[in-house]
Design a protein that fits this description.
42% helix, alpha/beta, Rossmann fold, binds adenine, 296 residues, seven-stranded parallel sheet
């Protein structure tokens, strides 16, 4: 089975892309869409077996060159090696998609130091390594496009403070780099997915997907292909004038819906509105009509 991209066949012919976290979920969908449009893709993650299976599968399904590279993005030397291997094999790096990341659900007060640091190191420092090494080893000289996958953290991220902080930092980093590296022909943007139906959903508490669907304006979860379409747009010539931006693909979830339950107080609040809550000067009350209301 192959996917049908809405973009023109051959759009990314002979382009070279690195997709981190490209063996599963959203990253796999992104790698697949790029491959389907003609790109050579290096998929990178820490887990060799799933990488090899995905690379073999995509290569066979699309008669394409998909290379698996084991890389822990937290480790600078491994990121350097990822770019060295990509350049050796394909001779250039046109696109970098920073999709690799991870987090776990926990109330803020019980997150350990180690757990917090791990999420920051992967989602923020790892993404930083990918951006800076991409620039140093190729893009400052030749240009290129970078897309980082972040998250729906616009109203904070209750239950995942570590990833909310890291992803917000990645959005800000993209804004800075879009300016500092504009003259080099580097465009850098983010895509912020909401709740997306992938295998990764199994890592969260049961029932979370159902609950999420109810609290999303579009009343459903997104698909990995809906995220990969947004990434493809930003990498395509149609996105050439877009840099430092973050495109939300979240069904409106960042705008509406309860994402954390705050218990009601034992005594429900009693709110009585006096005729003139901001009482200062009697003549002001008269001027705004409040005096009449108090007499009524
Ligand atoms: N995906 C999740 N964590 C990762 C890491 N540390 N390196 C690369 N890909 C990842």
């Amino acid at each position: 089975m192959t996917v049908q991209s809405i973009f023109a066949p051959g759009l990314f012919r002979d382009r070279v892309a690195i997709v981190t976290g490209g063996a599963t979920g959203i990253g796999l969908a992104i790698a697949e869409e790029l491959v389907s449009l003609g790109a050579h893709v290096v998929i990178a993650s820490r887990k060799a077996q799933r990488l090899q299976i995905a690379a073999r599968g995509l290569s066979a399904d699309y008669a394409a060159q998909v290379a698996p590279v084991v890389c822990n993005i937290r480790e600078r030397a491994q990121v350097e090696a990822l770019f060295d291997q990509t350049l050796q094999r394909f001779g250039k790096v046109d696109f970098v998609v920073n999709n690799g990341g991870g987090q776990f659900f926990s109330p803020a007060q019980t997150i350990t130091e180690k757990g917090f640091q791990a999420v920051i190191e992967t989602n923020l420092t790892g993404t930083w390594h990918m951006c800076q090494v991409a620039a140093q080893k190729w893009m400052l000289e030749h240009g290129g496009k970078i897309v980082s996958i972040v998250a729906d953290m616009w109203r904070g991220f209750p239950g995942m403070v570590h990833t909310g902080a890291a992803r917000a930092a990645v959005v800000n980093m993209a804004q800075t780099l879009a300016v500092e590296w504009a003259a080099a022909g580097i465009r850098i943007n983010c895509v912020a997915p909401g709740v997306i139906l992938t295998t990764g959903m199994h890592n969260y508490p049961p029932g979370m997907a159902q609950l999420a669907a109810r609290t999303i304006p579009l009343k459903r979860l997104g698909t990995a292909q809906e995220v990969s379409g947004a990434v493809s747009y930003l990498l395509s010539p149609a996105g050439d004038f877009v840099t430092g931006a973050t495109l939300r693909v979240d069904g409106g979830a960042s705008l509406w819906g309860e994402n954390w339950t705050i218990p009601d107080p034992a005594q429900p609040p009693v709110v009585e509105i006096p005729p003139w809550p901001e009482q200062r000067w009697p003549e002001h009350a008269a001027a705004i009509g409040a005096a009449d209301k108090s007499q009524a």
